[in-house]
Amino acid sequence: MEEIGFFLNASRETSDEDLISIAKQADGLGYHSYWTGESWGRDVFTVLTMVACHTENLRLGTGIATVYSRTPAILAQTIASLDIISKGRAMLGLGSSGKVVVEGWHGVPFDSPLARTREYIEIIRMALAGGAVNYEGKFYQMERFRMISPPVQERVPIYLASLGPKNLELTGELADGWLPVWASRDRLPDLKEQISIGAAKSSRKISDVTVSPYIFCYAANGAEDLAHGEQLLRAHMAYYVGGMGTFYFDSMSRAGFATESQAIRDAWGSGNREQAAAAVSDKMMESVVVLGDAQQCRDQLAQFRQAGADMPIVNFAHGTDLEAIHRTMAALAPQADA
Q1: Dihedral in degrees, nearest 10, Cα atoms 121, 216, 58, 204
Q2: Do 176 and 295 share a domain, yes or no?
Q3: Is pLDDT larger for residue 247 or for residue 122?
Q4: Domain containing 120 — which CATH number?
Q5: Ranges for the Luciferase-like domain (predicted)?
């Protein structure tokens, strides 16, 4: 059976009851994992703990926890606690986020994200292994820290959200998995090659890194609903490219959509959200999303797998209603004969 995960925002836009119902549906359909992130809403670990208490097999991933928001020691303790509560189902997704979030929301300097991420992962690995952590780094200096409540899993999987070349190499060198967002299907082979360079530094192969792109999906129920889903996806993509700093703008520009990305940024900067969404070309959107009826969505997801996605993570555009989420989850559920 081919593995597939899903992401659902943990904000209060989705009630606890609805979130649990979606998680239970995913658990019953054989989904591999539920991923959620944190921004200005609820924290990832409290929400994942709630989901853990209502599911049996669904793995639980932070997607993502930023390396600037918690010390590595408390992060190790927290992921171990989730692993204990869930009986060995925790997965740790990490990322550096960006300057706007780190400095504006957390009030700490956004300095040396690559070097800091490296130290962060090294310390967490040491702590989760159960030994004493004595660490002398540029950012973290620790003495005699030891966890007395180790995780259930011998090795808690650590995934990295990365887009830039150096970050991709770091992913290959240190991580168990990769969590790209808005990764063009056509670029996946090239991006995996950059991860391979890092993997070779640790005597590893690209197959040692699970490629898990977030893919925004919408299984439509008829022509009118298809147009609605397309509108939601265009608007959400415009928000990322035009309003979320430089990471996604640069990523889509490198994917061959520099003209569209600039038009999106210009329109967004002027406050014209509709124009920004309209600047997302058909080719640009088709390279990163899954949209259509149930069979078309399955076919498009298969194309992402053929391009190198090991475990796609189904994601939903802002404004997707509960019925569409359930319908999309059912359409893309793992096939027993896959």
Answers
A1: -40
A2: yes
A3: 122
A4: 3.20.20.30
A5: 17-310
